[in-house]
Specification:
Number of strands: 0
Strand content: under 5%
Helix content: over 70%
Structural class: mainly alpha
Oligomer: single chain
Order of helices and strands: HHHHHHHHHHHHH
């Protein structure tokens, strides 16, 4: 498929997403709000992040930004090394205590237990929206009903998260090695090479992780089939189509930026993106970009 046809395809998908969401905006925005509440409840236990540390961290960045811009090229590496040391000392002025480590573990567990079921529920909810249904809010909350469903959702997010982390480590291994060698030997030449290497690594990472774009939707349809099966199926569907997946994700960049700059926009963007991606998943499965038949079930 050429680029112009892919662009037309993306436009059709987005138009259909807007149309199918027309009578589901209230329930969609409500579910996105629930996700934020679940995340905030977990993050309240974060032991290392405090307002004082955030302010100090930003102050260090501001001061060293000016310094780095005014530093001679040969002294750039030592200035960068000094900045990293100061940033670390701000966030971790002393070795973490046992209580802090326990709180960190509790935070991670809470984020997984509270956030995983509803994250999978969102895939199920917007997957049904893309098929012309008008699902109830309970569709997205159904995985909280028993411990097995919760554990399966947690397992999916953990397994997928590990894959993201491993691919990031693989992609950044060479540029990280160059940066470490530059700091160790004080080499400005190696440091200058590490910057474009990092940028290239991030691009490759972004393209590669597009292989998992369908995994959440597939898993949400039948969680009993297991996380591994859903991830493998997503990889199979996207094989040879990673650039197409990357182009699709990049087409939402303006929305991502607006959501970052004006957070309330996320209540529009998140449902829009997830519904559109459900259509995209159907397309990768061999479907067509057509308007689904509508059901008359109440959205609430």
């Amino acid at each position: 498929m050429n680029f112009s046809l892919e662009r037309i395809e993306r436009m059709k998908i987005k138009a259909l997403a807007w149309k199918t969401l027309r009578k589901n905006w209230v329930s969609s925005a409500f579910l996105v709000m629930l996700v934020y509440i679940a995340q905030l409840l977990g993050l309240n236990f974060m032991p290392f992040i405090t307002e004082k540390k955030i302010i100090a961290f930003s102050q260090v960045l501001d001061s060293y930004y000016t310094k780095l811009m005014q530093t001679e090229y040969k002294l750039l590496v030592s200035a960068f090394k000094e900045m990293l040391i100061n940033l670390w000392s701000v966030m971790f002025p002393a070795a973490p205590t046992t209580n802090q480590i326990l709180l960190l573990i509790i935070t991670v567990l809470l984020l997984l237990l509270l956030g995983s079921p509803i994250s999978i529920g969102l895939y199920r909810f917007f997957g049904q929206v893309s098929r012309g249904k008008k699902p109830k809010v309970l569709v997205a909350l159904s995985d909280y009903i028993n411990l097995r469903a919760i554990s399966l959702c947690v397992g999916f997010n953990v397994l997928l998260g590990i894959r993201y982390i491993l691919w990031f480590a693989v992609a950044c291994a060479v540029p990280a090695g160059l940066a470490a060698a530059a700091i160790y030997f004080g080499s400005a030449e190696l440091f200058s090479l590490s910057i474009p290497a990092f940028l290239l690594a991030l691009v490759l990472y972004y393209i590669k992780t597009g292989a998992y774009i369908c995994a959440g939707y597939i898993f949400s349809e039948n969680i009993e089939a297991g996380a591994s099966a859903a991830i493998r199926e997503s990889v199979r569907l996207t094989r040879g189509k990673l650039l197409r997946c990357a182009a699709y994700r990049i087409s939402f960049f303006v929305w991502e930026l607006m959501s970052f700059l004006a957070n309330p926009i996320v209540f529009i963007y998140k449902p829009f993106y997830m519904t559109a991606t459900a259509f995209f998943t159907g397309l990768l499965r061999g479907g067509t970009v057509t308007e689904p038949a509508r059901e008359t079930q109440s959205a609430l």
